[in-house]
Amino acid sequence: MWRQPKAVWAVAFASVVAFMGIGLVDPILKPIADNLNASPSQVSLLFTSYMAVMGVAMLITGVVASRIGPKRTLLLGLVVIIAGAGLAGMSETVTEIVGWRTLWGLGNALFIATALATIVNSARGSVAQAIILYEAALGVGIAVGPLVGGVLGSISWRGPFFGVSALMAFAVVVTAFLLPSTPPAERATTLADPFRALRHRGLLGVAITALLYNFGFFTLLAFTPFPLDMSAHEIGLIFFGWGVALAFTSVVVAPRLQRRFGTVPTLLVNLLAMTATLAAMAVATENKTVLATCVVVAGLFIGVNNTLITETVMKAAPVERGVASAAYSFVRFSGAAMAPWLAGVLGERVNVHAPYWVGAAAVLLAAGVLALSRSHLRGIDADEDLDELSEATAISVGSDS
After folding, report:
1. What is the C-alpha separation between 35 and 373, in angstroms, rounded?
2. In this structure, which topology does domain 10-180+189-396 adopt according to CATH?
3. Which residues cross the membrane (predicted)?
4. Are 303 and 377 in contact (CB under 8 A)?
5. Does the pLDDT at position 278 exceed 60?
6. Residues forming a β-bridge with 385
7. Fewer CB in a 10 Å sphere around the end CB: N or C, the chain?
């Protein structure tokens, strides 16, 4: 699995940097609120604007990549992220930061969906191995993001934003030199293709499952810094532990559980465990030790979930991987965008326990949706060779057109 072409490693490295952006701002949410006199719900819009634009923009990623090629799409996404993060760091109000985070989300959309399809298409071995490599990059990025954000955020809340810009500039150079030129696709993707892909009930079921699960995930990510009420460095360390747990289970634990128990049974148990963790956070919100411990424990379940759901998406519908990724990401990110904002509102207007109860209910509902969709997901545990899957996908696409 680890013997891959330079192109795969180049995209994987850039993915690490891109995913750092998710957790990088977590330790500075409270400092931003304190320095700019903003409420938790206002600051949580940094996540909401980012996720909402990223979800909608996922619909155009396939259209852009199929016309200018994956490499140019990846580079365009990275350049947009550099601009969005840098301008956010130069902002003077929360509204300005929220606005530039939307630009950041657009860049991430162009990059993330294309990166997943590029790694799966360029890697050697099976689909599962390629996705584990992608999830390893995701895990490392999410783990390092809060740590870097905590260190830079302890100097200034602007530090993490400028840090992302600098790292992304380096990622642009690496991607430009190590990723070979990739021609546009033979068949240009249209805006309608992701919606057509969602006609496949297996893909739709997994996408809705991911939407509800991400609701709980981003409730934990965006709201927890406020009841923890710690310094940026301390919160960075807690979420670093969360990211390490996520990276470990996504790469090491998820494949073993999948081989032994199967994808859907593993996901169902995992979602129930995540529900229990959020419920524990709802009960013991005032206890910082319990809250911090639950954050790290949640990383274990999130890692398993991310790997197995991503692999399921790549196999659930007989369409191009870029289209499947765009359709799935549109559903999960667009819906999950409301979670950070809603968590802030519930924490302000109801109590600090309410966001976690709502998050737990959403993840429990995700388990129910997945259980109802399992009849459409037969065969996803077959270890398909990447070349064989490419041929099968091409045949299916040709027969559909």
Report:
1. 46
2. Growth Hormone; Chain: A; (1.20.1250)
3. 7-25, 45-66, 73-90, 102-120, 132-155, 161-181, 202-223, 235-254, 266-284, 290-310, 322-342, 354-372
4. no
5. yes
6. 126
7. C
